[in-house]
């Protein structure tokens, strides 16, 4: 992959180079929930929820989609690599970071820029995504060995395969760059509790008068 070297673990190079997340799984084309939104860290491969049965005892990481780009939850990715200094966003009560660079659609510039791609950032951040952090550390000759963390067990629960793979609109107070970029958002599905799909109001009956004496 361009910009990386043999000093990058296979799983990291694979996840940052994967362009096929959220496409239908060719093995389970006829099944529901067949989007490839799970990354198998041991096989370095994007898979769908149906495929996890064949990857038992492997380590998994769920990929999510935010503003039409691939993200991971900080709390999960931190088990594998240090995410500090990477711009994060808060959505669905969880912090997420982008895996790769995004197109810059605005000429708005802030004094603080990503050290690798020059994207405008809030002051507290140095990198706009994981890929930029990795590439910059390699370019400076520092390497990423100190950033990596060992994690032998990363299971994924069936309950995680929900509509929140497509995340809701940004939390404007989460530290987004405010660069004026156009934002395209997926609509988040609203789950209605069973039994409340229809209005609970009953039709009023015709009032009956008391008989006259």
UniProtKB/TrEMBL annotation:
UniProt domain B box-type: residue ranges: 25-63
InterPro entries xrefs: PLATZ (IPR006734), Znf_B-box (IPR000315)
MF (Gene Ontology): zinc ion binding
Superkingdom of origin: Eukaryota
Keywords: Metal-binding, Zinc, Zinc-finger
Protein name: PLATZ transcription factor family protein
Pfam families: PLATZ
PROSITE patterns: ZF_BBOX
Species: Rhynchospora pubera
Transmembrane domains' residue ranges: none
């Amino acid at each position: 992959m361009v910009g990386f070297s043999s000093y990058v673990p296979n799983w990291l190079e694979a996840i940052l180079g994967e362009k096929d997340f959220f496409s239908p799984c060719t093995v389970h084309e006829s099944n529901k929930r067949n989007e490839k939104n799970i990354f198998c860290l041991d096989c370095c491969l994007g898979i769908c929820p149906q495929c996890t049965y064949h990857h038992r005892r492997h380590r998994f990481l769920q990929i999510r989609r935010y503003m039409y780009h691939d993200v991971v939850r900080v709390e999960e990715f931190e088990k594998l690599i240090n995410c500090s200094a990477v711009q994060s966003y808060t959505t669905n009560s969880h912090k997420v970071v982008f895996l790769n660079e995004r197109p810059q659609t605005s000429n708005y510039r802030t004094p603080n820029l990503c050290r690798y791609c020059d994207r405008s950032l809030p002051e507290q951040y140095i990198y706009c995504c994981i890929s930029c952090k990795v590439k910059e550390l390699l370019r400076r000759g520092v390497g990423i060995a100190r950033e990596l963390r060992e994690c032998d067990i990363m299971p994924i629960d069936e309950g995680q395969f929900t509509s929140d793979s497509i995340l809701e609109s940004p939390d404007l107070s989460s530290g987004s760059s405010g660069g004026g970029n156009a934002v395209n958002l997926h609509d988040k599905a609203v789950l209605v509790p069973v039994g409340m799909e229809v209005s609970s109001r009953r039709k009023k009956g015709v009032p009956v008068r008391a008989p006259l004496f």
